[in-house]
UniProtKB/TrEMBL annotation:
Protein's organism: Azospirillum thermophilum
Gene Ontology biological-process entries: sulfide oxidation, using sulfide:quinone oxidoreductase
Keyword annotations from UniProtKB, A to Z: FAD, Flavoprotein, Oxidoreductase, Quinone, Transit peptide
Record keyword Transit peptide present: yes
InterPro entries cross-referenced by the UniProt entry: FAD/NAD-bd_sf (IPR036188), FAD/NAD-binding_dom (IPR023753), Sulphide_quinone_reductase (IPR015904)
Domain FAD/NAD(P)-binding: 32-151
Pfam family membership, one: Pyr_redox_2
Region: Disordered, residue numbers: 1-23
Highest rank taxon of the organism: Bacteria
Segments of skewed composition (Low complexity): 9-23
Cofactor(s) required, per the database record: FAD
GO molecular function, one term: sulfide:quinone oxidoreductase activity
Official protein name in the record: Pyridine nucleotide-disulfide oxidoreductase
Length: 427
């Protein structure tokens, strides 16, 4: 891995000399493949490309020095995993030969096959892969940003607050615990209720669950988007005595007063404001694409990178691909989906570089290991239109101990050692 600290004028990638600085203009560097976003999708694609075509020049733009294993944060919030095991240095993950520019893409100019970086540097590409993930919009809820991580307000959606979830859960002996879920789509749609189930499971084990009023405010109209999994989940909601309010959107939080306000849509469509006090508030924030992507010509009307749902090629720009959370394909936004998407994008990028049409096809697979209690997981695996796609010949709607072992041991291993190394992996 070669690293370029960009901002003062980026250096060229190996084998592709920069044309030099034109009067008054930042230099442009060139590469075969530019990957914007070095999260799970970006690293998997870069590694897969290196594996299949070592002489292809690849540049990755990623601002963060650390790579996060986000699926682990549910377990961090439940006291099952040490947060330090969800972080690795970005530099240790990128394969040799990939040039990492530690910067942020601020503008996309598909007509000129160019991406602009913060500071003005420009990168010209033959093929662009956009995988910037999702922006968590903490400021969309009044008062939330000021109090997050204090006053009983937490979220497993951040590495710095997931440990606070566990601190709160461990300490709670009675009172009221609120869990929220914003409107879809969000990354890992099951994560808001995973936080609820594992917290309740802890309180049940400690004999304090009956003293805690557990409430789930879900902005959507259903508990889970794939109906086959709902009966199992409803069974756990009943077991834990949690009360669900559907179509209830968190609007405002006052941390010091320990109060939250929700807009609740009634059966007739009328919206009312409901105030609830809390001892613990677990928030899942509203989610969109990052600003630079949303402001670019690459997105559809809803703000997602507009791709063909099967080839993941952009529907309007043939030399652009999108995958992961930022893309418009209507799969579950999960690392499990990326595991299936990345090899497809690798093959199709190489086809386009070779002047051929993309032919590899993504089947819509996504997976959500629903941690319904300590020691058991409902391993939801499904594709487009809610079609069940279990990897093993079992009833995937049932909670299983083996699926818990997969979630806590096998999946992290696959993530770090297979997926991020560009290896095609199960499932
Ligand atoms: C609490 C939680 C639980 C989860 N549980 C699971 C689970 O159990 N199973 C599962 O499969 N998935 C789970 N997920 C979802 C999974 O982590 C994501 O779907 C996956 O990380 C998506 O990969 P990505 O590469 O698209 O985005 P990310 O991994 O988020 O990476 C995006 C990268 O793009 C970078 N970036 C953003 N903007 C720019 C820019 N303008 N220029 C350059 N770089 C940019 C970011 O810095 C980031 O590194 C969970 C997520 C969370 C938060």
């Amino acid at each position: 891995m070669d690293r370029i600290a960009s901002g003062d004028g980026a250096a060229p990638c190996a084998g592709h000399p920069a044309p030099g600085r034109a009067a008054g203009r930042a230099p442009t560097i060139s590469c075969d493949v530019l990957v914007v976003g070095g999260g799970c999708a970006g690293v998997a694609v870069a590694a897969g490309l290196r594996r299949r075509r070592p002489d292809c020049s690849i540049v990755m733009v990623e601002p963060r020095a650390e790579h996060h294993y986000q699926p682990g944060w549910t377990l961090v919030g439940a006291g099952v995993l040490d947060v330090r095991r969800t972080v690795r240095p970005q530099a240790a993950l990128l394969p040799d030969g990939v040039t990492w520019i530690r910067n942020t893409a601020t503008a996309f100019e598909p007509e000129h096959a160019t991406v602009v970086l913060q500071g003005g540097d420009r990168i010209r590409y033959r093929v662009l892969v956009v995988c910037t993930g999702i922006k968590l919009d903490w400021t969309a809820i009044e008062g939330l940003a000021e109090t997050l991580g204090r006053n009983g307000v937490t979220s497993n959606y951040r590495i710095d607050t997931a440990p606070y979830t566990w601190a709160l859960v461990r300490a709670l002996r009675g009172g009221r615990a609120l869990f929220t879920q914003p409107e879809m789509p969000i990354k890992c749609a099951g994560a808001p209720q995973k936080a609820l189930y594992l917290s309740c499971s802890t309180w049940e084990r400690r004999g304090v669950l009956d003293a805690i009023d557990v409430r789930f405010h879900n902005a959507n109209a259903v508990l889970f988007g794939v109906p086959d999994y709902v009966p199992s989940l409803e069974g756990y909601v009943r077991r834990y005595g949690a009360r669900i309010t559907f179509q209830s959107v968190l609007r405002k939080v006052d941390g010091p007063a320990r109060k939250a306000w929700f807009e609740v849509r009634g059966d007739g469509g009328a919206v009312s404001l409901r105030e609830e006090s809390f001892d613990l508030l677990h928030v899942t924030p509203p989610q969109t694409t990052p600003d630079a992507v949303r402001a670019s010509p690459l997105v559809n009307a809803a703000g997602w990178v507009e791709v063909d749902h099967h080839t993941l090629q952009h529907t309007r720009y043939g030399t652009i691909f999108g995958l992961g959370d930022a893309c418009s394909a209507p799969n579950a936004k999960t690392a499990a989906a990326v595991r299936r998407q990345a090899p497809v994008v690798v093959l199709n990028v190489l086809s386009v570089l070779d002047g051929r049409s993309p032919c590899a096809v993504y089947d819509g697979y996504g997976s959500c290991p629903l941690t319904v209690e300590h020691g058991k997981v409902v391993l939801a695996e499904f594709g487009y239109n809610g079609k069940l796609m279990p990897s093993l010949p079992w009833d995937s709607t049932k909670p299983r101990r083996s699926a818990w072992i997969a979630k806590t041991r096998l999946f992290p291993h696959l993530y770090w050692n297979a997926m991020l190394r560009g290896r095609n992996t199960f499932p």
